[in-house]
Design goal:
single chain, alpha+beta, 2 domains, 6-stranded mixed beta sheet, 14% helix, 252 residues
C-alpha cells in the first residue's frame, strides 16, 4: 500500500523562519512598510477604492476640506486618520459643523476642542443671576473652566436665592441639541477665556449679536460678572441683573 504526504511551504518577508500562525512576518529593523497610496476624496469615501473594508490601511495623498495627508484606517464605514498610538481618531478644524454645533477651538491633536451652539440661546438678552446677588465662587477661567463655573453658579444660586425664572448658566445647562440621532446635553456658559476664543472666531462662526455673558464672576464682588463686547473684543464686568446675550458651548 502506497502512502502519500503533502507539504506546504511557508514564506515570509525579512525572515527565513516565518511563523506558521502569521500571514506576514516583517522583522527588518532597517526597512519600512509602504502602504498603498490613494487620494481620499472625503471622510467617508475614497478614490479609487470602491468599497469600505474594516482594517484596510492606506496613505492618503490628497488634501481636501475634511481630510489631510497621512495614514488612514478604515473601520468598515469610514476612513479615519491614524494616531501615533496606532488607533484612529477624527480630526477637527475651526469652522467644522460637528459635535452638535460649530467648532471654534481645537487642541494640538485636532481630536478635542470646543464647539458653540449655532445660534444664541437668548434672543433679547438674559440676566446672569437667578434674582438674588451673592458670591457664587464661580471664579474659574481658561479652557474648559466654564463647565465647572456653570455647575457652581446653579448650585450657589439655589442656596443664595432662586426665583425660578431662567438665567444664563441655567439656560446653557438645560440646552439639548439633537443632530444625526445624537442628543448633546452637556452645554455650559463659557468662561471669560473661552468667550474670548469664541470672539476670535466670530467671523468663521457668525450669527453673533453684541454683548455676551461669560460664566466668570468678578473677584470680591458678589454683584458683577465678566462679559465681552463682540464689536471690538473688549472684556469688562457689570451688574448681574443686566440683560446680555448668551451662547452656549460644550467640550468634546
Amino acid at each position: 500500500m502506497a502512502l502519500s504526504a503533502s507539504t506546504f511551504a511557508q514564506t515570509g518577508i525579512g525572515t527565513t523562519t516565518p511563523n506558521a500562525s502569521a500571514q506576514l512576518d516583517v522583522s527588518s529593523t532597517t526597512k519600512g512598510f509602504l502602504p498603498p497610496r490613494v487620494a481620499l476624496t472625503g471622510s467617508t469615501s475614497a478614490s479609487p477604492l470602491a468599497a469600505h473594508v474594516a482594517g484596510m490601511v492606506v496613505y492618503n495623498t490628497a488634501t481636501v476640506s475634511d481630510v489631510t495627508p497621512g495614514l488612514y484606517v478604515n473601520n468598515g464605514a469610514a476612513w479615519t486618520l491614524a494616531t501615533s498610538s496606532g488607533s484612529s481618531a477624527t480630526q477637527y478644524s475651526v469652522g467644522d459643523f460637528a459635535q452638535g454645533g460649530i467648532v471654534f477651538w481645537v487642541d494640538a491633536t485636532g481630536e478635542h476642542g470646543l464647539v458653540c451652539a449655532k445660534v444664541d440661546q437668548s434672543t433679547g438678552g438674559m440676566r446672569w443671576y437667578a434674582g438674588t446677588n451673592g458670591d457664587t465662587q464661580a471664579k474659574g477661567d481658561g479652557i474648559y473652566a466654564g463647565k465647572a463655573n456653570t455647575t457652581i453658579i446653579i448650585s450657589a444660586q439655589v442656596a443664595i436665592g432662586d426665583d425660578n425664572a431662567t438665567y444664563a448658566a441655567r439656560m446653557c445647562n438645560e440646552l439639548q441639541i439633537t443632530e444625526s440621532g445624537i442628543t448633546y446635553g452637556d452645554w455650559y456658559l463659557p468662561s471669560k477665556y473661552e468667550l474670548n476664543l469664541l470672539y476670535l472666531q466670530r467671523t468663521t462662526v457668525g450669527g453673533f449679536a453684541v454683548t455676551y455673558w461669560s460664566s466668570t464672576e468678578v473677584d470680591n464682588d458678589s454683584e458683577q460678572a465678566w462679559y465681552q463686547f463682540f464689536g471690538d473684543g473688549g472684556q469688562d464686568y457689570d451688574d448681574k441683573d443686566l440683560l446680555f446675550y448668551v451662547r452656549a458651548v460644550r467640550a468634546f
